[in-house]
């Protein structure tokens, strides 16, 4: 009976695990504006468990992912624990989980990803919420460089106030650390330039650190917890856990 049902799924030549794998891949791809290669592999042994919605887990690997807010990700890997799903929802193009689960997580960002992300309206608008000496700030040409000594260099052209004659060139170097698994922060910051440039740079770091709450970047229905951050080969790599209360959907 099981082989008859799975063998007559509305996807010729595919088993239940392949159907669910494709549905998961499509559902995750829909969360992003653009993606490169995506692959999800659902594990269920025996496959008949899928009829009751039982999944041993699934692995997801994605490359070259662009979020709708403009943030870029070079690679993302999720390794999801056992979970119960609504198998009937799969045929509606939906992925619905019946109880919370969690996944180990690995995310890779390049220099280009970071630079592009810091120049998106999504980030620029958040940066411009701060004021310096009672005046609004206007950011442009922000660039991020990952150095061989494990530090990050940030440079930006910043006008203080709308009537500023010329922008301040801000250059600062810092390390990235994670605190309480929930926040990222620039630490051991050094700034160059005039006294005003240094004061402005330090004020910007304080503002950016206040924004780097992981929950503000998580997809709906998920929580991110980062255990470790590594920098190597001009890439920033995050290792952690995603707590999934419901399968996220596009806002």
UniProtKB/TrEMBL annotation:
Domain of life (superkingdom): Bacteria
Pfam families the UniProt entry points to: LmeA (PF11209)
UniProt-recorded name of the protein: DUF2993 domain-containing protein
Source species of the chain: Leptothoe kymatousa TAU-MAC 1615
Organism phylogeny: Bacteria, Bacillati, Cyanobacteriota, Cyanophyceae, Nodosilineales
């Amino acid at each position: 009976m099981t082989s008859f049902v799975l063998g007559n799924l509305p996807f010729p030549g595919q088993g239940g695990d392949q159907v669910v794998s494709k549905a998961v891949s499509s559902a995750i791809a829909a969360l992003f504006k653009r993606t490169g290669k995506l692959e999800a592999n659902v594990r269920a042994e025996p496959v008949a468990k899928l009829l009751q919605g039982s999944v041993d887990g699934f692995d997801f690997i994605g490359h070259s992912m662009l979020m709708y807010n403009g943030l870029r990700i070079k690679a993302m890997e999720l390794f999801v624990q056992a979970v119960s799903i609504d198998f009937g929802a799969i045929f509606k193009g939906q992925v619905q989980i019946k109880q919370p689960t969690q996944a180990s997580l690995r995310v890779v960002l390049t220099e280009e990803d970071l630079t592009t992300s810091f120049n998106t309206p999504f980030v620029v608008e958040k940066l411009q919420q701060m004021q310096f000496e009672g005046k609004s700030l206007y950011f442009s040409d922000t660039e991020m460089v990952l150095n061989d000594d494990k530090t990050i260099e940030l440079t930006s052209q910043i006008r203080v106030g709308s009537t500023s004659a010329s922008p301040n060139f801000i250059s600062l170097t810092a390390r990235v650390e994670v605190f309480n698994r929930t926040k990222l922060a620039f630490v051991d910051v050094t700034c160059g330039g005039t006294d005003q440039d240094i004061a402005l740079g330090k004020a910007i770091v304080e503002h950016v650190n206040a924004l780097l709450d992981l929950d503000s970047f998580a997809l709906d229905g998920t929580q991110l917890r980062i255990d470790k951050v590594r920098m190597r080969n001009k890439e920033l790599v995050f290792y952690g856990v995603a707590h999934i209360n419901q399968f996220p959907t596009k806002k």
